[in-house]
Amino acid sequence: MTILKNTFCKGYLFSQTWPKHEPYLLMFEQTKAIRLTDMSLTAAPAIALITIWLQIYYFGVDSLHSAVAMSIMLLSIPAHGFYQLGQQADTRLPISLQNWYREIEHKVQAQHQADLSYFSKEDKNQPSEGWVTNNKVNSRLTFMDLALLLNRLFGGNNKKKQ
User: Fold this and answer.
1) Is pLDDT larger for residue 80 or for residue 112?
2) Residue 119 half-sphere exposure toward CB, CA atoms < 13 A
3) Mean pLDDT across the chain
4) What pLDDT does 89 receive?
5) For residues 35 and 21, what is the distance between their CA atoms, to the nearest angstrom?
6) Which of 52, 53, 58, 135 satisfies CB 3.0 to 4.6 Å to 67 for a cystine?
7) Phi and psi (nearest 5°) for 76?
8) CA 150 vs CA 132, 141, 145: distances in Å
């Protein structure tokens, strides 16, 4: 049971970490899956209630069993999405993405070093966050590592730009 719970938690964390509103990340299937999971999390309860109401309204109380079964199935869609995202978060990156990950990591690290050299030590606005390089071997990098790096690259702002 804890493995299942951990997978759901990883999926939710992955969905919160992955940058959703960057236009050039739309090519990743993770972006689409996260959007669909978030949308189903919002819409599934309303659709489930409407399903129960319509079936009871048109077919009577005799259809209660099938209405509840359909509603439970509809309510399980977001859970299935988070489970799939949790599985994806632990999946290792393909070779092409491993190289892309290292390129982005070096660019972000260089930018962080430039920012640190820009601020003087007496400046109170000096960035307090340190940049830690991921010391994992390329063959051990996962999609969660990529999500953390992209989140760092885009400033950790997952809110929709207005």
Assistant:
1) 80
2) 13
3) 84
4) 94
5) 10
6) 52
7) -85, -10
8) 14, 14, 9
- Please list, in sequence order, all residues whose beta carbon lies within 8 angstroms of the beta carbon of residue 113, skipping any fewer than 6 positions away: 131
Token pair, residue 127, equals 């960035």
Residue 133 pLDDT class (50, 70, 90 cuts):
low
> Rounded CA gap, 131 and 107, in Å?
12
In the numeric block, the tokens 């996260």 are attached to 34
Q: What are phi and psi of 14, to 5 degrees?
A: -60, -40
Q: At what angle do helices 64-89 and 29-59 cross, to 10 degrees?
A: 170
Q: CB-based contacts of 126: which residues, under 8 Å, 6+ apart?
A: 116, 119, 120
3-state secondary structure of 6: helix
Query: How far is the CA of 138 from the CAs of 39, 80, 133, 146, in angstroms?
Result: 33, 29, 13, 12
